[in-house]
Structures are given as C-alpha cells and as structure tokens.
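ENTRY TYPE: paired fold submission
RECORD: A
CONTENT: sequence, then structure tokens
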Amino acid sequence: MNKRAFHGFLTFAALGTLACFRTAAAAEYTSIVQDIAVDRPADVVWKKIGGYCDIAVWLKVTCVYSSGSGELGTVRVINEHTDEVMVAKTLHSYTYAQPTSPILYHGTLDVQSEGPARSKIIYTLFYDQAPLNTPEAKAADRDRRATRFAEALAAMKGLAETK
C-alpha cells in the first residue's frame, strides 16, 4: 500500500471512530413504565400472558419464532418484519431487544406478586429517542407507544383474570 493510500485509510478509520463516538454521545434515552393490577396470583398470570409469542394475542400482532423455542436467545418476528431477541429471562419476566432498530429499542414484560391472590403486570420500554429529531416527534412517538402498551396491559389483565 502506498503512503497516500495508507494516510487515506487512516483518515477514513479516524472519521469512522469519531462517528461512533458522536452517535453514542448524541443518544437521548427515555423509558416508559406502565403497570396494571390483576386479581390473580403471579404464577397464574404468567401462564396466561408470559409466553414469548403470547404478544400476538394481547398486542394484536403476528408472531413467529425464527430461532429458539421461547427461552433466552429466542428470536421472534413481529408482523413479519421486526426481529426481537430475548436477552434476559426470570421466572415471571423477560426482556427483549430489537437488534437492528436505530432507536436501540428494548422492552420488558414483568409480573410481580402483590400477595397470594393479586399481582401486577409491568411493561417497560427503553429506547433512544434522539433519531426522532424534534420535540414534537418525540412527544407524538411517546404518546403512541404509551397508548399502545396501555391497551396491551388492559388486554393482558382481561386474559389473566378469565377463568
């Protein structure tokens, strides 16, 4: 490699490194945490709503596994185009990430016991709203997500409380 090409390569590499740092510095993380009380024990609630593709019922989407079987590392495909990989799992919760999302989107579904006959479903969304550019776009996106997942929580409550 000649000297000029090598310097061009170094310049390109340095600019790429700076772009990575600029992206990380420009992040504007936000979260939406919503919950709903359920008149059923956590074990009962989780059995009715906690399967990794149960999202199809309570969010009214399509869901198929592209790999795995519902355990840690399983990849589900929502509405035939959104990949979500399960990155954490406990007895009554899981967390997923959308690995190709430009907003570093993550979600957690959690059911916590509130006593022997009650529980609480908690849904947490975490994402980078910086790519949305304007305060109006960020607020509209947040409102849309909050409304959609409030509806999902209500649907989960209904499913969990049916006999």
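RECORD: B
CONTENT: sequence, then structure tokens
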Amino acid sequence: MRFTTTLRAARDGVFGIFIGSALVLTAALAAQDMMMMDADGDGLISYAEAVTANPDLSEAKFQALDTDANGGLDAAEMTLAREAGMMMSGG
C-alpha cells in the first residue's frame, strides 16, 4: 500500500512540475510576443498591432480576448490568448 501511495505522489509531483513549467513557458512566450508586437511601446497590444501579426484575427475575437475592455491586450490577456490558441507569435 505504501509503495502505491509513493508512486502516486511521485507521479502527481512530476505532473505538477510539467504543468507549472508549461504555464511559465506560456507566460514567457506571451511576454516575448508583447515586446515584438507592441509597436508603440505603450504596454498594450492594440487591434491594429495584433492583426499585423495575426491577419486572420477578427475584431470580435480581439474584443473577446480584451477581458477588461480597455482596447488593448495586456500581458495576462496575451497569456490567456496564447493558451487558447487564439494568438500566434509576432515573430
């Protein structure tokens, strides 16, 4: 019984590390995208900046990604967009 419990704990630990690493990588890639796509350097990706890197991005999809409705995507919104597969790299 203890051996099985130890194996489960090891498996869960490895899985947790994998998920954590994937989230860190996604956030890092989103931050890189922000730097590449933010042409005016205001810290937000406007629709015009986003569509330059993602020509198939509709304004409706952009507005759905802009969860705070401020007209631009911040780092957190870019991370969510990347995780959802809705925003590709700017480079």
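NOTES ON RECORD B: The two ends are 51 Å apart (CA to CA). The CA atoms of residues 46 and 85 lie 18 Å apart.
STATUS: closed
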